[in-house]
Amino acid sequence: MGLVVQKYGGSSVADAEGIKRVAKRIVEAKKNGNQVVVVVSAMGDTTDELIDLAEQVSPMPAGREFDMLLTAGERISMALLAMAIKNLGHEAQSFTGSQAGVITDSVHNKARIIDVTPGRIRTALDEGNIAIVAGFQGVSQDKKDITTLGRGGSDTTAVALAAALDAEVCEIYTDVDGVFTADPRVVKKARKIDWISFEDMLELAASGSKVLLHRCVEYARRYNIPIHVRSSFSGLKGTWVSSEPIEQGEQQVEQAIISGVAHDTSEAKITVVGVPDKPGEAAAIFRTIADAEINIDMVVQNVSAASTGLTDISFTLPKTEGRKAIDALEKNRPGIGFDSLRYDDQIGKISLVGAGMKTNPGVTAAFFEALSDAGVNIELISTSEIRISVVTRADDVTEAVRAVHTAFGLDSDSDEAVVYGGTGR
Question: pLDDT tens, 195-213?
Fold first, then answer.
């Protein structure tokens, strides 16, 4: 008997019919001889509605109480799903994150998993039950407070449980048929990828691909847990994410030169103007940002002006952290010694990802030629061995993604990619 962990996103359990459809799929996996653990997200837009409600009550809700509120969405889903499974003649038990043994640090709203102690889950499985776990949540190790893992944290919950339970696979069910060469909501001719390495998937996730959370893939790579990304709305084979290529029938799925094109419009750009070009200035800027617990992405420093000895440093960060970053830098302005700050939240990032880039000359040239032909101006550039990222105007992102996707022959000749659940995950 194998052990399978399945995760269902909000769009998969958006209503009663969706919950009953998911219950049938879970029971089918049980009938196939597997022990089944299910991680479930809140129904549809429940989390967004709870956030809106909190903001109506308090403009700055306390972290502890905010987490207590948000975790209610997953508790509703897990209980309803357990009921639906019991109606199909199978026993199911639902567990909150804390009951499932998901131990986190104490950072509210974006906690990180420290450990998973799934004793109650194992007991439920040994008794022949299906275990339903509320995703996105855990309990802090020190204060025993309820915590949330940040948006998309249910993916990480699922992989963490799969690792702790030594599962054969972690199946991530969403509203598309797998990982595509681009967001099928933007590129209708995007092609489904049969297999992708952890490394390429990490780059796509970090670059804006929303089908898998970056932390989820990072966790899976660390514990070598294969992920199968599938749609809960169809029976089609999805995308395998693993360390080694998989076998499909008699044919091995090979690594493509280019895995895909990702985009992200959730970032902003801050430019620190008039920074003295001397050792320690950049360190002071980014220490200020780090002390404010803000993650940054791309960084570019201009050549200093010979007449003034001053330079500009630009970096990108999440829009939601923009105000905090500006306030932190202004507070430390005397210590850093810059002239002014510029803030721009009308930017977008386009990234080309593929391990084959390392050994195929001309990829960089073709990427920039495609952007040039589409009339897209580039503001920042960042590269790694398997990724090229650029920042452009937000209005140019859609055209840029489509142009690059076509330029690298990624367009599908078959039917358009289907997005079953609208805009949800």
Answer: 999 999 999 998 988 888 8
